[in-house]
Structures are given as C-alpha cells and as structure tokens.
Amino acid sequence: MSKYRRRVVGLLTVVALIAIVMGVTGVEPAWPRIGGPGSAERAPLPGVRAIASSTLLKVGAEAPPGGELAFMAVEPSGNFVVSDSRRHTVMRFDPSGQLLSEWGPRFGEMTLAEPAGVAAQGDNVYVLDRGTPRIFRLDTAGRLQATLTLESLGTYGLNGLAADLSGNLYAADTGRNRILVLSPTGQLIREVGHGGSDLGGLTQPWMIAFAPGGGFFVADWENSRVEGWNTNFEATDAWSTGFHPSGIAIDQVGRVFVPDTEHRRIEVYSAQGAVLGEMGMPGSPPIAVAPKQVALSRSDRLSLYALGGDGVVRLDLENTPPPPQGVGADVDYVSLAILGLLLAVMVFAVSSRRARQRTSVASVGAPLDGPVGLQAENRAQR
Hints:
CATH topology: Neuraminidase
Structural class: mainly beta
CATH architecture: 6 Propeller
CATH class: Mainly Beta
Strand order of the largest sheet: 1-28-27-26
Mean pLDDT: 85
Number of strands: 28
Distance between the termini: 34 Å
Number of domains: 1
Largest sheet: 4 strands, antiparallel
CATH superfamily: TolB, C-terminal domain
Low-confidence stretches: 24-36, 326-334, 372-382
Radius of gyration: 30 Å
C-alpha cells in the first residue's frame, strides 16, 4: 500500500469516527433540509408546556351515556365534532363542551354503520364509515350532502380522516398499510405508503395531520413512530416515539403533538423529531382521559383538545424557551465507551506500526560483513 493510499485510508477512518461520535451524542449539524415537511423551519422551535387542564365533557354527562368516543375534528367556527363508534352517531359541541346537536345513525335512507375519522373543511363535515365503507359529507346542520363510496378500493379497517386546504381527503387505511388520497368528489388521486418499517413504509397507520409549510405527517401505529411526507408524496423523515401513536396534530408553528394513550401523556416534537415538551408527566396538569386523538383549538388561546373514549379534555398551553438539542442530550454512554475502545485500538495500531518501521530501519543500517558464529552444540548460526 503506497504512502498516499495509507493517508486516504486514515482520513476516511477519522471521518467515520467523527460520524459515529455525532450519531452517539445526538449532535445534528445545521445543514439545510430540502423538500421535507416543515423544511421552512430554520430557527429552533419554542418548547411548550401545559399550564392548566379542564374536562370539557364526559360520556354520561355532557355526552349521551353508553357511547365510545372515537375521533374528533375542529370546525373553522371553533366548534368541534366527535364520532361515537358505539352509538353510531356524530356529535357537535361548542368550544366549552356544550352539546349543540347529534346526527345519525340514520340520514334519510342511509345508515351510518361504524363511524371513525371525522374532518372539517369549510362548511362541510366529513365522516368516515369504516363499516360500509364510505364517506358521508354533511353540512354544519348535519344534513347529508353526498356519500363517497370506497368499496372498490378494497379497504380494510379504516380509521383517521383529514382534509387539506384544497378539499382533498386523506383516509388512513390501517389494515392495508396505506393512506388513500381522494378528491372532494371521492375519486382516488393516489395511494401513499407501502407495508413495512423502512422510510416510506407504514404498518397500521392511524391518523394524518398537515404541516403549515406543506406536506403531512402520519401516526404510524405498529411501527411506534411518526413519519413525514413532503408535497410530492415522498417520505422524508421518521422518528420513534417509544409507544403506539393513534393520533396526531400540528400547530401553526409546526410543532407535532402525539398522544400516548397507555401512559396518559402527550409528547410534542419538532418536524425532525426533537422533543419540545411532555404533558401529563409529574409536575404537569393531569390529563383526565386516556388520550387517543388530539386537535388544536382555533381560538386565540393556545390550547389543545385531547379525546379519550369517555371524554374530552382541554389543555391550556404556553410557550417555553427552545430545549437544548445539542451535545449532552440523550448521550449513549455505552456506545461512547465502545467508541473510546475503538480509538484506543487505532492509536495502538498506529504506534505499533511506527515502532516496526523504526526497527526495520535500524536493521537495514547494521553491518553485513561481520563473522558468522556457529553454536557448538548443533552447529546452528548465532
């Protein structure tokens, strides 16, 4: 191996070790991201915490008894709609949790079999009926305007529903590991995702939320992660949550809110998965439901709705300074120890090689014309 080749190998080794250090310590260089959801994010996002928690409604009190709340959506007016999978209805509440109306299960000759995701866009309320399967389009008075059939798409276990600014509908086809993108009239525009855990893969997706700068994020339930997609429907980011996420919401600055149902918590992330806040932890106002869906309030107050099977809670929020995201956050000390060992081995190898080179030079410089002695016992050379 030539001298220059050894130098190149040494340089590549140093670069690889630097990359390992950055991966272990969590350091992320400020290189620009191109095309990802939230790619407009440059400065660190502020953190967020809950300062108060209030129960807006409970099944059997503000909501009729015997129900099982499934999904929710907030209207432009600030009212919110909730699907009841057990009573096969959709309820509409004002921002304080007062029941305004209940729709279904009958809509003329149509019956709402198993309501799941709901979405509000303009003056329309969309309800995903996983039992049929189809989508009901209602006005704000609960009158049926149209039905969009999904039977030809071979869906299996529909869950979340969301509507973008153009009126296109995004339905989580959980059992088929995909997101269906539909026009306002129900025509299939595209299928997003494929089964798997690689970037672009989905395993039982549950809910979709749109980023303020374009693109969208998916609560990828079985993979225990959140996955981001850009406006070209290309997967760009994915990060582990450590739990099975069934809901997701994004505020106007791009913070991603994800409920942890089992632990009655809500985690908040940046568009790249950096933790910006935790709600429901010790020292934080308790969340009186096991949250499975979340939605942002449309009022001037910074607040978040959290929906559980038996009620809805409102969390009042406030911004905090951006949490530290550099060296010292989530350091893996075991990996650091291994890295130190690798460095020690490399230093030892280089030192040994130089020692051998010095010995070789000394041997070459020794005189070659001296007498050669023989061992008396076996006549071997000394």
